[in-house]
Amino acid sequence: MYLSISDRNGGKKDLASADLSPAGPRGKPFRLSPVILCLGLVSMLTDVSSESVSAILPLYITGFLGLSTIAFGILDGINQGASAIVRIAASHASDRLGRPKGVALAGYGLSMLARIGLLFASGFWALTGVVTADRIGKGIRTAPRDALIAVSAQPEYLARHFGVHRMLDNIGAASGPLLAFFILMLVPNGYGIVFVVSLAFAAVGVAALALLVPNLKTGAPGGSKPAGKTGPAWGFRWRLLREPGIGRLLVAAGILGLLTVGDGFIYLVLQDRDSFAVQWFPLLYVGTNVVFLVLAVPLGRLADRWGKARVFVAGHVALLACYLLAAAPLGGLGPTVACLVLLGAFYAATDGVLAALASQLTPPDKLATGLGAAQTVVALSRMAASAGFGVLWFALGPSTAMTVVGSCLAAAVAASWFILRGGLRQRTAV
């Protein structure tokens, strides 16, 4: 077993076994690593940048530029999945180099450069190029950053450490839309001002990563292969999928990702139902991200004690409830706030928990590759989900389309639980 924790008798307890048991980790007290705190600060600044843009993008595309929901579905799909193009290569490069900070810095830098492109992009194809570059930057940086978190965290509190990082990350994710809201309140159609402010925060985030985060080693020293292992030096290691548990995790994450439509579509459904003023639209992102940051640490702690797979699946149950509530003919503030709470709970129960699960089931010398594989599967499946939902909306209307996706998600949640449980038992047996 790659990660283990001490039990009360001083022996070793398998983390996969612990994930199937409600008994929580025992041993050392929880201590937050300064590295994780610094990475959280970098993510917070970067998310102020990215989420201030994401909060206005649905209205900017469908309202200001006058493009269709199909066009938005394509762009939102790119926003969800373009990062998958480079995730595996970047994560494998991080493992081979054994120094993930440099790879992560390249990704953050590319996203910063994409913010400059937003100042000049005004058509569909120009926006497509800018969004793709930004998401490729995200794909480069995410797995190396999570690898830094994994090696800096206490193994018995892995999900909680990821939860702390996601909490800091979502302080930025909540602040970005709020910033966009105030800018649009003061300057109607002030999208260009939002783009300039976004660039400034991205630049500060890159500087913080370069100056504050140490260049830690991960995996085997110098990126060397473990004894007895053969295979390509710079390609994806397909044998990783045969590691007990990780293959099943990727299947379950992929199935659920195919039924996870972009947040922008959920918010457009709510706006279509209630017809509230467009300047209030960014506050929907604020509400979701506030719930995310409030619940990230408690649900990470619950995942360490109750089981990561249980919390991960429960998060998708919250997403299902959000879909059904958004599709219901219930207008007003109460149902809208309930949707935001459920969506924030979904992210808090799945984002960091998925990274913790992948870290738990991946060998140390392939840590970034395992994280990258999980993130790639989720990104590709969500890209397909957003593009497909745009077409479904166009054909059936928003409420009916949301009901159809919700019905399929109900079946996927049940199937994914059995897939994950089998994978964890497989890892425990090994």
Question: Which helices and strands, and how do they pair?
Answer:
Elements: E1 4-6, E2 12-14, H1 15-19, H2 34-54, H3 57-64, H4 69-81, H5 84-97, H6 100-118, H7 124-152, H8 158-186, H9 191-212, H10 246-257, H11 263-274, H12 282-306, H13 308-327, H14 333-361, H15 367-396, H16 398-429
Antiparallel strand pairs: 1-2
Helix pairs in contact: 2-8, 2-9, 4-7, 4-15, 5-6, 5-7, 5-15, 6-7, 6-9, 7-15, 8-9, 8-12, 8-14, 10-15, 10-16, 12-13, 12-14, 13-14, 13-16, 14-15, 15-16
Number of domains: 1
Strand content: under 5%
- SSE ordering: EEHHHHHHHHHHHHHHHH
What is the level-2 CATH architecture name?
Up-down Bundle
The major beta sheet can be summarized as: 2 strands, antiparallel
Structural class of the secondary elements?
mainly alpha
Instruction: Give, in spatial order, the strands making up the sheet with the most strands.
Output: 1-2
Radius of gyration: 21 Å
Helical region count? 16
Low-pLDDT regions: 1-18, 20-24, 220-236
**Globular, elongated, flat, extended or rod-shaped: what is the shape?**
globular
Secondary structure tally: strands: 2
Q: How far is it from the N-terminal to the C-terminal residue, by CA?
A: 7 Å
Annotated CATH topology: Growth Hormone, Chain: A
Helix content: over 70%
What would the average pLDDT be, to the nearest integer? 79
**CATH structural class:** Mainly Alpha
CATH-level-4 superfamily name: MFS general substrate transporter like domains
